[in-house]
Structures are given as C-alpha cells and as structure tokens.
What we know:
Layout: H1 2-20, E1 23-25, E2 28-35, E3 52-56, E4 58-59, E5 106-107, E6 114-123, E7 131-140, E8 142-147, E9 150-155, E10 162-165, E11 173-182, E12 207-217, E13 220-230, E14 235-244, E15 250-260, E16 265-276, E17 279-288, E18 304-312, E19 315-323, E20 328-331, E21 334-337, E22 340-342, E23 344-349, H2 363-375, E24 380-383, H3 390-399, E25 402-406, H4 422-438, E26 444-448, H5 458-472, E27 477-479, E28 493-495, H6 511-514, H7 524-527, E29 534-540, E30 558-559, H8 561-572, H9 579-603, E31 609-613, H10 641-645, E32 651-656, E33 661-663, E34 667-676, E35 682-685, E36 688-693, E37 696-702, E38 706-708, E39 711-722, E40 730-738, E41 741-750, E42 761-764, H11 769-776, E43 780-784, E44 819-824, H12 845-849, E45 854-855, E46 867-871, E47 879-887, E48 890-895, H13 907-920, H14 933-939
Parallel strand pairs: 23-24, 23-31, 24-25, 25-26, 26-27, 28-29, 29-31, 33-41, 42-43, 43-48
Antiparallel strand pairs: 1-12, 2-3, 2-6, 4-12, 5-30, 6-11, 7-10, 7-12, 8-9, 8-11, 13-14, 14-17, 15-16, 15-18, 18-19, 20-21, 21-22, 32-34, 34-39, 35-38, 36-37, 36-40, 40-41, 44-46, 45-47, 46-47, 47-48
Amino acid sequence: MKYIQLLLLLLSVWACSTKSAQKIELSGEWQFKLDSLDVGITERWYSQDLDHSVRLPGSMVENGKGFDITPDTKWTGGIRNPEWYKDSNYAPYFDPDNVKFPFWLQPQKKYTGAAWYQRKVTIPKNWKGKSIWLNLERPHWETTVWVNGKKAGQQNSLATPHKYDITSLVRMGDNFISVRVDNRTKDVDVGWNSHSITDHTQTNWNGIVGDISLQSADQIHFKSLKVFPDLKSNIVDIKAVVNNTSSKKKDIKIEVEIKLKKTDREAGIKQYKFTIPAGESTVNLECVLNEKALTWDEFDPNLYALSAEIDYPEGKDKQSVDFGFRNFEGDSTGFSINGHRTFLRGTLDCAIFPKTGYPPTNVKDWKKEFTAIKSHGLNHVRFHSWCPPEAAFVAADEMGVYLQVECSSWANQSTQLGSGLPIDQYIYDESKRIVDAYGNHPSFVMMAYGNEPGGPNYTTFLRKFVTYWEEQDDRRLYTTAAGWPVISESDYHLTSENVRIQGWGEELKSIINSQQPKTTYDWSEGIKNLKKPMVSHEIGQWCVYPNFKEIKKYTGVLKAKNFELFQESLSAHHMGQLADSLLLASGKLQALCYKADIEAALRTPNFGGFQLLGLQDFPGQGTALVGVLDAFWKEKGYISPEEFRHFCNSTVPLARLDKRVFREDETFTANIEVAHFGESPLKNVSPHWKIYQNEKIIAEGTLGQQDIPLGNANKLGKVVYQFQKENKPRKLTLEVSIKEYQNSWDIWVYPASPIKLPKNIEVVEDLSPSVFRHLEDGGKVLLSLGKGKVTSNMGGDVGVGFSSIFWNTAWTGGQKPHTLGILCDPEHPALELFPTEYHSNWQWWDAMSHSDAIQLDSFATDLKPIVRIIDDWVSNRRLALLFEAKVGKGSIFISGVDLVNHLADRPEADQMKKSLLHYMASDRFHPTVELSVSQLNSIIK
C-alpha cells in the first residue's frame, strides 16, 4: 500500500511538473503605478520597481485605483447634455460632493490613460530551447510589453488575446515583465460610443482579465488550426500553420483524430508525414469521418473535438479544437441551417456587466446569459460593436445559440469609415484577429464590421470589406453593418427601414401610435425586392419604469446612481409609494409592445428574423430601460419566460385581426396562421381555438387535422364568431393552440346602445360662466378635453401616445411619446362599464391617442387621479388622464380624453363616456378635494 501511495505521489508531481513546463499562471499580485502624466516610457518605468500593487486578473477600479467621480469627470462616450446638472430635471438633486450621473451606471472610480503592471516570474530550466510567449486574454485595451527592460511589442486588439513572443528576451531563472495598459482613444478611434470601449456599457476600464500566463512549446508546434467541415462529403479540411523555430528543415508526423464529444466516440483518424522548412509553414490536412456526420443547430448542437499532434524526434506538440458540421445559408426565402428553414429570434448583447464592468471569461457566466435568452424563446445574439471572449463561443456552441460578432467598432460621431483614418485598417486587422481566434466555433455564424457607420464613403469601404471576407472564409455569412447600408454584396441585410412598428424620429406617427389596433400588417412590402434575408435591426426599444429594488443588486464596481436620482425625484413629486405599481403597469405595456413587434416579424413571409433592443436593460445612453429582464438577466415581475414564449418561440400561432374593439352587433373574424421553425415539420396536428371571458369558454373549435411545414405564413383556417347581445361591455380573449404551443389576443365588445345623458350633468368641452354657475348651483359637469386642449405648463407639452417610451427621452431629443401608459384601480366605480386592468391594454389606444395629460403638481397632493398617466422617470410629473374634484357646491369630472367628437367611429370613447356618466349619476360620485375656479381655468388653453 505504501508503495502504491508513493507511486501516486510521484505521478502527481510528474503531472504537475509537466503542466508547469507548458504554462505558468501569472494571476495574483502585480506591482502597479498610474501614469497620468505619460512619463513612464521616458523615465524607463519598465526597469524600475513600481510604487503600488494590484491583483490580476482584474480592473483598476476593482483594485480601488483611479479618481473619484466629479462633475468634471471625462467620460468615453457622447453626452447629449454636458451641463446636465443645470437641467431642471436633475438640478434639484445635484450634489457635487456626491455626484449621481443620470445617463449610465456609475463606476466607483474612473481613470483614462496609461497604467503600468509589473511582475517577477521564474522560468524553469526545462523551458530552455522552447518557444515562450506571454498571453493576456482580455486587456483593455492597448498593451505594450517589456521583458527584462527590453521592448517585446505593442498590441491593441479589443476582441482577442494579446500574445507576445518573448523567447529571445527571457532567461532561465528570474525575469521581470512590465505591461503598460492604455485605455485612451489615441492612434485608433473605433468610435467613442462603441460598446467595446464606452462608459455607456461595459465601461472604459483599464486592466487585464481572463488568462494571464506564460506558455511554452517545443521547437516545432502548431501556431493555429482552422477547421473547414463539409457536411455533404463528410470530410474535414484543416489548414494548420506550423512554426519551426529551429534553423533547419525537419521531418514531422501529424496525426489527426476526431471524436464526437457527447459520446467520446472516435469518428475519424489519419496520419501524415511532412518535411517542413524553418519558419512558418501552412500544411493542408483532411480527415474523412467513418460515420455520417451529426449536425450542429439550435435543437441538437452536436460538437466534434479535433486533436492534431505533431511528432518528431526532438519533441511533440498537440492542439485541440471543437467544431460542428453546419451549413448556415441565406437567400430570398430567409435563412436555413443544414437545409432546414430557420428564423433568427435575437437580442443584443451590449456589453453590460454591472458587477465587474467587463465581460466574463468563464463559460459558466455565459451559460447563465444564454439560458435566460433561450428560456424566452430566442436563438440568436448580436454582439453590438464588440466581440466577446472565447468562453462565450464555447457556451454558445454547447447550447446551440447563433452569434453575430462585430469588429469592436461603432464608427460614427467621433470617427467615420472609408475616409482614410486609422480605423479603416483597424477594422481589417481586428476582423482577421477575430476569425483567426474564434472562426472554428459553429455558433459563429454571422459577422458585420460593427454598428451604424458614419462618413461619406462608408458604403464603398464596406462593399470591399464584405467581398473580402466572402472570398477569404465561407464558414459564416457577412454583412456590411448593423443598421445600414443595404448592398447587393451582403449575404444578409440588417436594417430598421419599414420593418418596425416604431422607428427613430417617427414619434406619434409610427404604426403602433397612429394606426388603430390590429394584427394584419407585416413587412412584405419592405422586403419584396430583396434577394437576401432581412433581419430587422434593433426592434422594440420599449421602456419600462425603473425598478428601485434593483439598486441593492449593484454590489460590484458599478452603482445605480442614476436609479437613486430618479427615486429621489419620484419622492419629491409625492409618488414614492407608487414605485412598484409604476414598474408593473408600465411593464405590462412594454410586454404588449414587444409582442406586437415580434408578431409582425413572424407574420412576414420570407423574413429572416429580428434583433431585439433588447431582452436586457441598457443602462447607458440616458438610461434605456428597454428590457423585460434587468441588467443582471433577471425577471422584473410582470412577464415570465413562459408568457414571453407564447409569442416568441420556434413555433408561434398567429391571428390576423382587422381590429380589436367591436360592438355587439358585429361579427368577429380572425385568420389563423402559424410561424413554425421547429426541428421538423408537424404532422397530423389539429389546431384548436377558443374564445373565453375570464375563465369561462364561450366558443371553441378546431381548424381540422393538417400538416404544418417549416416556415411562416402557414395558413391554418379562419375563426368566425357572432357576438351575443348581452348589453354589457366585456373583454374576451381568443386563444389558439397547436400541441404545446399557444398564443392569445384580447378583444373588447361594447353594447351598441346610445348614450343617455343623466339629469343635472352637463358635458362640456370648455369652461364658460354658465358652466361655473351650474357648478355653483350644485350641478355636475363632465369636462371633455382632448389633444391640444391643455395649456403647456399644465401638461399640454407632454407627448401622450399609446405605446411606451421609445429608448428614452433623454437620448432621443425628447421624442414622443413621453409617457409609459396608464395606472388605475380597475375596481373604481368610474370604470365599472369600461372593463380594464390596472395597466394599458389595447382598449386604451383610443383614449391615449385623443388626449392630453393634465399635470397636477401645482394642486393639492391629496388630489388622486382615477386614471394616472405614467410619466418619464426623468421628470416624474403627477399626470392625470381622468380625475374628479369639488368646485363650490358642485362636482366636476375632468377627462384629458376627448369624449365628444366622432364617437360613432370611436366605440372605446363612447363606452368610456357611458361609464363615466353612469358613475357621475350615482351617489358614489362625491369628490372631496376642492379646486378653485382659477385652478380649473389654468388647465385649459
């Protein structure tokens, strides 16, 4: 037994020494010094001991290094209002000693410039004669390296590891490595809003994260392996770059072995012999699988492991890469994966990492993100103007997620493409580094230069860029940029033109805000002349009110000081107790808007897909709370992943409705179809439909047994239902289910009976002396206003629309709408004949489209609206849509909604008026908060 234990001990020591002979970890304590004056190079800091210490991997701010945030802090990224602290919305809460920056998450410290990191390392004797390099997996961003006082080089990739060959600079024994990291935009401006560097997102941090190590290899070793699997032939082609660091040509053997990872079963093996010269050589290898290749896709992400080993008399080298057999293609009918139709249901990853301020380099954290994404029915992620570390690709490979990667740039505003600036060459260099580093991953299916380019010559530049990569590497699809331009050379297109229900600058003229609720429109007209797939760019951007309970989650280097400011503002406006209600009510509207956006894309024949902005909140650019998940990829409480998957999934039942509000004498008709992009066609299914009110089914049926092919616009049949005359308003729901997939749409039915005006109630559109006399005599008044009726200082300047806020008001120049829907008590007797939830639903579209908000900040705080309009979190005004008050001996009900004009064509307004008059005629209408004549007059223009 003692002999066995001794043997095991010796084996473990040998294993450790073998491992140490290949790699020396450099994580731990490093010497450190700031170089804010840029004197480190001239003063030869690379040959001196530094004053301080930090721990790596890590950032400066994680180590408590940098400067405190002040009003004069210089940020990386555009700021719409540089003197924001003078703005009336922020000035009351501004404290120069405790700055709460309103436009993004705030780091505890800030530093932009050069910083030095130094470390002593001992090279073992058994590394003599080997190639040695320094690996810095994710520095940010430009590094310059000295070894023993001699310069090893400089690198500036934002996407890939910085690797320095230091063979000629090291000695056996003790060595000193100095790394100068500079996070300024100097020689190359990738665009100050690029998510690879901007403080809007991951922060422009300084430091080094991920693997930090010295690595060694024998004289002859692989520099890279590029794997090109061919599904049709079952053959794997390999382009291997072999580095022979000796001065002589050498005879080598290379063995290639392929295994299916999930079973570890050998799938192919082959040996080669070569004579290679000194220096770098490219050798072409191939390996034929001994079985039919299993494919990689979102449903069954089969991965293969390829091992290549060099053997020669003086040593050996081995490298392994994972790959998958997949063909991702596109044409005028959309995308296909391995010959099967697919539809990209994507979201953006905007480099938002609220704990660290930089991306994780471990697979576990990326699996958490992709799990959240897949649980919401998505299969695709676009990395907006940045490229993630290796771990993201590994996780996506294993989970079957399609990735679009970009070359670290948003060349707009602070720079431009195609104008001869250094960014032009940088894009080519960065794209080559990305493809070399991550190109074998099957999840890496798409690539673009970056986001929304600027400059007069970007189209010419991007035309050449796309053509170059299509010729260089056909393992993925290429496009110019996210947003524009659309050119024939691209393999697919990304644009927002005519493929969204709300576009930049459309404001209240957008589809969702200008067209009565329906589900018949799609984007066929916008893509009819395209020969390549179209993916709609950054759809959604629907905001929700902040979740102030989220503040306590920010336990890392970033703090939600913006949320703290907004919370102070809400309390100052006497609504602090409503925070949770505002979140939930606005969240329900946000989810409704996303459902409308996504379903429109799914209804479009031959459409390629969509990219949401976003599933996760974007805490920068003015604070854009556009996610149904927070910055930590966690739910907010108003829609579950299961509910989201009803309208966002591989299979989604759809209904085309001409309208959503009906009178009792009408017939309901819905054309039912399905978007089906599952693993295979559906055979012998019977789509089922039902119409129900609350829990009670009032009609149901099937659409007959049928087969459903892959694709969308698959017509299943028609639902026709004659509404019963019940002489009462009601909300009904149409639900369609196909196997385990279901989706639903709310509709409203109102009686067709005319309005009967109760006695002693006057309905007016203005305040006149006779109205005030009526009130003085104890009468009742319904004051019907409407769009354009309220004075600007009393709410008339608030842009009211049905939808939620698009992106946010601070960053869109105040684009309308300025509001986040309604909040009400659905049990209030004033709404008894106008069925509603506590939040906006489609029956409120008419009211929000024909109304002004009424601002109550100058009135008594005990004046509580019956229906509130939820204001932007930046201004937090007390806004009413419907409220009541006492005037003299009389009572007045004030409606910001027009309840007088064109009611024959506005059944919702007609029914709301009936409900309000019914309430006013009852003894329950008894306002207690009094308004003066002058206060009333201040409301109306």
